[in-house]
Amino acid sequence: MKFFLGDDWQVTPAGGATGEAYIAQQGDQKLFLKRNSSPFLAVLSAEGIVPKLLWTKRLESGDVITAQRWVNGRELKSHEMNGKNVAQLLSKIHRSSELLEMFKRIGNTPLTPQIIIENLQKKLSLLQSYDEILEHGLIYLFKQKDKVEHSKFVVCHTDVNHNNWILSENNELYLIDWDGATVADPALDLGLLLYLYISESHWESWLSQYGIPLTPELHLRMHWYVVSQTMFIILWHIQRNEPDQVERWETYLVELIRDRTH
């Protein structure tokens, strides 16, 4: 990174799963650099969803480096996910026609329930042994698939974990790490957020701040997506040979399926 910034810049890894993010500092000036970040970062920046994009540079290797304004701030804590600012920013993202158009232009097709089931089937077929709990999960998804079909697709972040929400010193809220974003039913993001962070008695008031009512149909769609995403999490931990995490998430999956079948 230093070779195009100059020797007077100090560049250090910023951590993260991809290892492609860096912090660059020169005196009081600080930048957040990323290699091959989301192609729609400019739109996210223009809409104030991520910190301001300052410049983009293509290297001879073909890699693209982006530089964003460094934000002095902190990650949200779990209990802060019930805040009005979170509901309103997620609503802004889901209602952004500019983001949706950008996704369509780069060939992103909607992640439908059918595609999710097919992806899970492929992963299940690669397992070394039969997993009864995951098979029950797949049966549930099949049975409910036609009930959760939804025609209005939006850009979903897909990883609304509290660690990806950054609150600046000036009280500006950002949602970062867009590498897994896709076009899908907004219930995908909503379900993951509500089930993980908000007690069910507060779902109605949280969704009213987001801008929609809590209906039985929305509840079912959110539940379906939480079941499917929980299965992906289990498969990820199986692949990493983490039996304690597999057991923890499979216990949760059993509870989820029982809740909707009793």
Classify the fold: give the CATH topology of the largest domain.
Answer: Aminoglycoside 3'-phosphotransferase, Chain: A, domain 2
Rg from Cα? 20 Å
| The CATH class of the largest domain | Alpha Beta
Number of strands: 10
CA-to-CA gap between the ends? 56 Å
Q: Per DSSP, what share of the residues sits in E-state strands of 2 or more residues?
A: 15-25%
Number of domains: 2
The CATH superfamily label of the largest domain reads Aminoglycoside phosphotransferase (APH), C-terminal lobe
Strand order in space, largest sheet: 1-2-3-5-4
What does the main sheet amount to?
Answer: 5 strands, antiparallel
Shape: globular
Order of helices and strands: HEEEHEEEHHHHEEEEHHHH
Sequence stretches where pLDDT stays below 50 over 5 or more residues: none
What structural class is derived from the secondary structure elements?
alpha+beta
List keywords for this structure.
alpha+beta; 5-stranded antiparallel β-sheet; Phosphorylase Kinase, domain 1; CcrZ_PhaseVar_Mediator; 10 helices; 2 domains; 262 residues; 45% helix; Phosphotransferase family protein; Aminoglycoside_PTrfase; Kinase-like_dom_sf; 3-stranded antiparallel β-sheet; Aminoglycoside 3'-phosphotransferase, Chain: A, domain 2
Descriptive overview:
By secondary structure, the chain is α+β, with helices and mostly antiparallel strands. The protein folds into two domains: about 1-70, Phosphorylase Kinase, domain 1; about 75-260, Aminoglycoside phosphotransferase (APH), C-terminal lobe (Aminoglycoside 3'-phosphotransferase, Chain: A, domain 2). It is built from ten helices and ten strands. The protein has helices spanning about 1-5, 40-45, 85-95, 95-105, 115-125, 130-145, 185-195, 205-210, 215-240, 245-260; strands at about 10-15, 20-25, 30-35, 55-60, 65-70, 75, 155, 165-170, 175, 180-185. The strands form three sheets. A five-stranded antiparallel sheet has the order 1-2-3-5-4. The chain has a three-stranded antiparallel sheet with strand order 6-8-9, with helices on one face. β4 (about 55-60) and β5 (about 65-70) form a beta hairpin. The radius of gyration is 20 Å and the shape is globular.
